[in-house]
Amino acid sequence: MATWQLAAKARRDLADLVESLDTEQLGQPTYCAEWTAQGVLAHATSFVETGLVGFVTTMAKNKFDFDKVSIAMAKTQLGRPVPDVLESLRSQASKSAVLPMFPEAMTVTDVAIHTQDIRRPLGLDGELDDEVLGAALEFLTSHKMATTLVDRKSLDGVRLVASDRDWSFGQGDEIVGTAEALMMGMAGRPVLDELSGPGVAAWR
User: Fold this and answer.
1) CA torsion sign, 2 to 13 to 101 to 138?
2) Residue 191, C-beta contacts closer than 8 angstroms, at least 6 positions apart
3) Contact call for residues 44 and 93 (beta carbons, < 8 A)
4) Cβ distance 13 to 115 under 8 Å?
5) Do 151 and 158 form a contact (C-beta atoms < 8 A)?
6) Fewer beta carbons under 10 A from the terminal one: N or C of the chain?
7) pLDDT tens track for 99-152
8) How far is residue 64's CA from residue 20's CA, in Å, rounded to a whole number?
9) How far, CA to CA in Å, does 191 sit from each of 31, 86, 114, 121?
10) At what angle do helices 179-186 and 130-142 cross, to 10 degrees?
11) Cα torsion for 9, 14, 17, 18, to the nearest 10°?
């Protein structure tokens, strides 16, 4: 599957998840300290709703701090009815990034992580699309732009081994877990209890 098609798949899966939530769940905290479940939806949608001029302007106003930019962009969507935001995300799901420097796989990975940021704290069943998850693992461990989502120093001296697929990365003390748990661990989410091996101590 072409990567922007994969990004569209990830975005629509996120929309399906959020649409299944009730009002109380929409307001629940996620693994993202700044955002509720509704906030995560707003974040994802802001990247398809914001054009080049708006994005560059927001970057300048926030001194090119990407975290602050993401928060500011998400706020532009929070006042809209949730059904409208869902429709925007679905209808523009395959839209590419406003800047060519942002690779397709970064969007796939960001949305995959945020989908589980919602699902896991709420205790909801559900798995990521297998191809989406595979693309996220490769991006986080191989692409220079992965520093926007993970501290690459955390990969020094460890070997990641997926217990549910034929995938590994790195050299050093092993960290073993499901592909999803490894992805979330690289992104700094609280999944260390799902991982095993001598390398877990370094992450802890």
Assistant:
1) negative
2) 177, 181, 184, 185
3) no
4) yes
5) no
6) C
7) 777 889 999 999 999 999 999 999 999 999 999 999 999 999 999 888 888 888
8) 35
9) 11, 28, 14, 11
10) 40
11) -140
| Burial class of residue 204, CB neighbours in 10 A (0-12, 13-18, 19+) | exposed
The DSSP element (H or E) to which 159 belongs, if any, is strand 158-162
- Span 15-32, pLDDT tens digits: 999 999 999 999 999 998
Sign of CA dihedral 148, 179, 38, 85: positive
What is the phi/psi pair of residue 84, to 5°? -70, -40
Judge whether 45 and 73 are in contact, CB under 8 Å. no
User: Tokens representing 123?
Assistant: 């205790």
State pTM to two decimals. 0.91
Residue type, 43: H
For the sheet with 158-162, list strands across it: 168-170, 158-162, 173-177
Token duo for residue 55: 């994005």
